[in-house]
Amino acid sequence: MLQLSKRAQNLKTSPTLFLVAKARELASQGHDVISLTVGEPDWPTFKAPSDAGIEAIQKGITKYTPANGTLELRKAITEKMKHELGFEYTPKEITVASGAKYIIFAALQMLCSPGDEVIVATPYWVSYPTMIELADGVPHIVECGELENFKITPEKLEKAINLKTRAFLFCSPSNPTGLSYTADELKALAEVLRKHPQVAIISDDIYNRLVFDGSKVAPHILSVAPDLRERTVLVNGGSKAYSMTGWRIGWAAGPEKLITAMADYQSQSTGSPSSISQHALLAGLRTSESDINGVVEKLISRKVSGLKELQAIEHFKVAEPQGAFYFWVDIRNCLGKTYQDRVVRTSKDFCDILLEKFFVATVPGAECGTEGFMRLSFAVSEDTMKRAVGRMRDFVGQLV
């Protein structure tokens, strides 16, 4: 009989992709399902990268590239980072791979030995703990709730670090909360990390261009602590700001030793990123500034509209997002109540009923490590969000 490895036996399905599949199954049965689950923009890939992808096919730019990406693209990434963040990198300190998710996966594979711990604060992106486990690491989960504004504090970070700590992984603006670390908060975290030189820092910057305060880019830990550069990995990609989710293209900047190891790992796993996607991203980096600005304006409008709708539901509390495109909704006032014959004990119960009976797909906070909340993506039209919130209002109104 075929035997699967322990790794396979312990592997968890991505909760968001599972929910997407469940929503599609209901839609295939004829139900009008509204999905607010996956962090995927509803706007198309911008014209310049789309045209460049077509050009790549037409001109035969369809062969293998170096495992770490083409030199031209890596140079363009260094120019982008200098322009947006003021950081100086060389092409040898850049690697390109099949999506920012795979970049994080590769970084963890190259950093973790069996038993090493990686600090992750709640609420977290659903894939972080499993990716750490697949690298034979141990997720060291630090609970950060409403009292901490859902962000890790210097005190909690200090307490979490021990001799087994290998890395600290965080995302700002955050998936799932949409909240950002301020420059002062990052400076305080840097003071802690400075005392522990064995701890690598993985900064997930995938949403750093989607910020709502008028800034070009979200505050960054290296802006306030440039001395941490030699142990910090910056992760980004085309998926969010450029709406290139299906192109599967991401990159990392960091110390050459680690970046080289990640590129070697990529060469033995994915081989190389898509030449077509690289050519498309190159065009996007060079020409899409005004497109991104337009997207941010659109998201701000959606945020304002969606907040108004959600805040009108008596039992909900919503954290106002500062970036990305998520609402982090406190549904604790709904728990313990009953819908028909079902007791709504957990966020999963709430989201299951919302999907099965009202055909709105959302992500339970429990999947992000924080019970009593749910994540909604507002990368949908204002009308779609209004219809979805209307169904939520109907559901909550029937709870007793």
UniProtKB/TrEMBL annotation:
Sequence ranges assigned to domain Aminotransferase class I/classII large in this UniProt record: 32-391
Superkingdom as given in the UniProt entry: Bacteria
Cofactor requirements of the protein: pyridoxal 5'-phosphate
Keyword Protease: no
InterPro entries named among the record's database cross-references: Aminotransferase_I/II_large (IPR004839), AspAT/PAT-like (IPR050596), PyrdxlP-dep_Trfase (IPR015424), PyrdxlP-dep_Trfase_major (IPR015421), PyrdxlP-dep_Trfase_small (IPR015422)
Keyword terms of this UniProt record: Aminotransferase, Pyridoxal phosphate, Transferase
UniProt-listed SUPFAM superfamilies: PLP-dependent transferases
GO molecular function: pyridoxal phosphate binding; transaminase activity
Gene Ontology BP terms: amino acid metabolic process
Tagged with keyword Kinase: no
Family note: Belongs to the class-I pyridoxal-phosphate-dependent aminotransferase family.
Protein name from the UniProt record: Aspartate aminotransferase
Organism: Bdellovibrio bacteriovorus
Lineage of origin: Bacteria, Pseudomonadati, Bdellovibrionota, Bdellovibrionia, Bdellovibrionales
